Amino acid sequence: MSLQEQALSFIDTALRVPPLFIMDEVLKFSFTGPLHVRYSRFMSDENPFLNGNGFGHINEEDVKMWATENDTSDGLEGYPMLTSIAPAIAKILMFILMYIIATVTFLLSSQRLIQVYLVVASMAVVVAGYQANMVTVQYLTSPPQSDHPSVLYSILSLNATALWDSGGTLSTLTVNYIFQGSLGYLFTLLYSGPQYPVLHKIMITSFLMPPISMLFTLPSGILSAVPLFAALLPLVLVKYTVASNLLKCTQVVIDGYHYARRIMRDFGLHSLLESEWVRLNVPNVLRTFWLIRVAHHVVIMLGEFMYSRGEYQSLWTLDLEAVYVIFKSVMTQGCETVVALLGMTSIVSYVSHYVGVAFQMILLTVEDDERSMGTVCAILFFVLAEQSGLTVMKGEKRFVRLCRNFCLLFTAMLHFIHNMVNPVLMSLSASRNPALYRHIRALIVCSLLVFLPVLLLFILWSFYPLSTWLLAVSAFSIQVIVKTLVSLLIYRLFLVDAYCSTFWEKLDDYVYYIKAFGNSVEFVFGILLFFNGAWIYFFESGGSIRAFMMCIHAYFNIWCEARNGWTVFMKRRTAVNKINSLPEATPEQLNDHDDVCAICYQGLHTARITKCNHYFHSVCLRKWLYVQDSCPLCHETLYKTEPSDDKQGVGEGGGEIVMDRVPPDQDADVQGAQPNEDMGNRDIPAWRHRDFDVIPGENTNGPNGEVVIDNEVGEAVMLPPQVQHLEDGVMHRQQERRESQGSERGDNRAQLQHNDREPQFNDNNDVFTLRSLRRHFIDQDIGQQ
Asked: What b-and-e string marks burial along 575-589, b requiring 16 or more CB atoms within 10 Å of the CB?
């Protein structure tokens, strides 16, 4: 990124921060009671330096007296409607309007945002000029300056003594005259309304009118009214500019709404959010907002601390107790609203991202940006905060809950680091990587993943009583330890196997048992965490977010894991049964064969012989059978199970789908040509007699009832509708055969189809006849309907 782009990004970020402060202040206000009540409560209760347990010496009775003396509701005691409901409704409407305006301003483009700030700056210039004139008037109308003659009279009468005596008055008027002239010129630059030279001169004269009037001896009332009238003309121009652009502002909002709808309709909500996230530079804006907010709070706390200790106290006198109080107050106030919580979430994301980068550098890996540690930790932290109601808590409860959420976040980071180091360990162990330093780096990270959870558990169980939160943190920590130990054991097994001179046939079993143990432990802890969350939901703190997260946990971490584990177990058991049905090779057969396994390219000390007389390791063949039930070399069926009446179940749609191979000597018309028949100088390969278990879905009956079985994937492949038949004669023979047998069998025969330009043949595609019967079908490989 060039320097100019960095400067523009910085300016854009700075322009979007003030709307966040407005939204944050709106969310902090209470909708009931006078405004001074909140500030008096902050002075007496929320400030740790000004209460009885802090360091301050301000009397709380004085604060309460100030609140009583400034109470403006005494005259409305006889009107309860006006004192309670009406002000609350007015404040609610005002705050909603302010929040909407701030949100729209935040979403504007950079050019529109600059125009808004020009209007705001113009109003700020007018207000600054008015305040400066009022301060000057108050200074000149108060003794002893009010006792001197007017400056203009002294100049006209050449009274040097009076001018010398009124030196303070003359210098004040000169400074105010220069200041007002500068403000008038600045207003002409910032004014975005109609640009006329005469209007510019009038604006500058309007700003200079109050300093000029102070040269005359006028009553104090008139001098006080002149700055107000002088500020009316610039304010009228600003209001005219705003009113004339209201229609344009409304059109901008409507165009933005239509743009969002169009993007959502064409590309989806995710694309809209992603594009706006990048355009608005949301992470940097939120981080800047939160850092400024925290810095402001720290400055106030340090100032109050220095005032409470003495006027000339130094910051070097801060003790640990004061630092802890300041840190506690900053962290508590840093998440009191949703906007502040988003800012803290952006800081958490930033820190977590660079923690992940540090571990990447240690492991010498590259992280996926879509699943970076910063993104995952930010989402988890925000969900935990909203789930626990962090923004609605007060004082000490909020700080305690925040610390607990950070403990859970720390365990989640450990899980993420394990996901980073686990593939590195597997790669190093399987590839016989001779770089020792890479092994050492990965092992150091694994040792940290064991040491840090143990240290965390020791500290928490030593200083905190048993609670649901402690059980959750303990479960997550133990899961990290178990997963790390499982990864180390598998790494050790693979490392031993890599340096073995012979084939280790039991390796796959050992790896499966170790992984099964780790997955079982995780599954048990997942169930415990679900019941722990249910207890919290029903007896401690409920909420829709917690219920939603519990449903997600129950589905992904319990149901999906159980289903996947059971699927793997059934596949493994089925594969073992298939392998056991094949004969085992004798030493004499292995010597005669004198070849390697075609799957792993390792020597054959033990092997299984397929029906097609091919030799494989039983472990390798078992892994192959997880994918498909055919020989890796010739694609011959390795395991065949005929459906029987006692193993039938209800099929889809209430009927059985039975696949029947048409005999080669009877399906010339169906297949379109006999083997090696010349059709346009193209040879059609001979069709092999094959058996398949096929469970057709809803798309089985395509156009003309055609289906092709792809042997590589073992699935039914529907051909596109635009594919044409081989030859007109072939199509005619197929149609005659279909009409002659359709009434008897009601079948849909699969046929080879070709493009009308270039018919293409695939040796892996077979032709079958699918016969629909009113019975049931059980797939024997998976044991399901």
From this structure: beebbeebeebeeee
What's the pLDDT tens digit per position in 270-285? 899 999 999 999 999 9
530 Cβ contact list (under 8 Å, min separation 6): 550, 553, 554, 557, 558
DSSP string for residues in 149-201: PPHHHHHHTT-HHHHHHTHHHHHHHHHHHHHHHHHHHHHHHH--S---HHHHH
Cβ distance 389 to 543 under 8 Å? yes
Q: Cβ(114)–Cβ(122) under 8 Å?
A: no
**Is residue 489 over pLDDT 90?**
yes
Q: Quick one: tokens of 740?
A: 């002659």
Residues of the chain above pLDDT 70, percent: 68
Task: State the DSSP string of 366-381.
Answer: ---GGG-HHHHHHHHH
144 cis-preceded (ω within 30 degrees of 0) = yes
Count of beta carbons in the 10 Å neighbourhood of residue 383: 17
What is the 8-class DSSP label of residue 549?
H
- Write the pLDDT tens digit of every residue in 440-454: 999 999 999 999 999
- Burial class, 393, CB count within 10 angstroms (exposed 0-12 / middle 13-18 / buried 19+): middle
Q: Residue 382: name the closest of 640, 163, 374, 260 by CA.
A: 374
Q: What is the pLDDT of residues 297-315, one digit of tens each?
A: 998 888 887 777 665 556 6
Burial class of residue 317, CB neighbours in 10 A (0-12, 13-18, 19+): exposed
Measured from the Cβ of residue 200, the count of other Cβ atoms closer than 10 Å reads 16
The per-residue pLDDT for range 238-253, each reduced to its tens digit, is 888 888 888 888 899 9
Residue corresponding to tokens 């009434």: 743
- Report, as an integer, the average pLDDT of 229-235: 87
Residues 6+ apart with CB under 8 A from 87: none
Tokens for 113, please give them. 């945002």
**CB within 8 Å of 1: residues ≥ 6 apart:** 9
Q: Residue 560 is which amino acid?
A: C
Residue 353 tokens read as: 């991202």
Strands 608-609 and 615-616 turn out to be antiparallel
Whether the CB-CB separation of 149 and 214 falls below 8 Å is answered with no
Please determine, for residue 409, whether its predicted confidence score (pLDDT) is greater than 80: yes
Q: Which helix (H) or strand (E) holds 304?
A: helix 282-309
DSSP 8-state code for residue 390? G
Integer CA distances (angstroms), 772 to 241, 661, 745, in order = 78, 14, 8
429-458 burial, b at 16+ Cβ within 10 Å, e below that, comes to beeeeeeeeebebbeebbebbeebbeebbe
Q: 62 exposed, middle or buried (CB, 10 Å; 0-12, 13-18, 19+)? A: exposed
Hey, CA dihedral for 593, 597, 602, 607, is it positive or negative? negative
* pLDDT top residue among 18 and 144: 18
Number of alpha carbons in the 13 Å side-chain half-sphere of residue 732: 3
| DSSP string of 653-689, one letter each residue | GGSEEEEEPPPTTT-HHHHSS-TT-BSSS-BPPPPP-
DSSP 424: H
Within 10 angstroms of residue 113's Cβ, the number of other Cβ atoms is 19
Kindly state the tokens that stand for 498.
């890599």
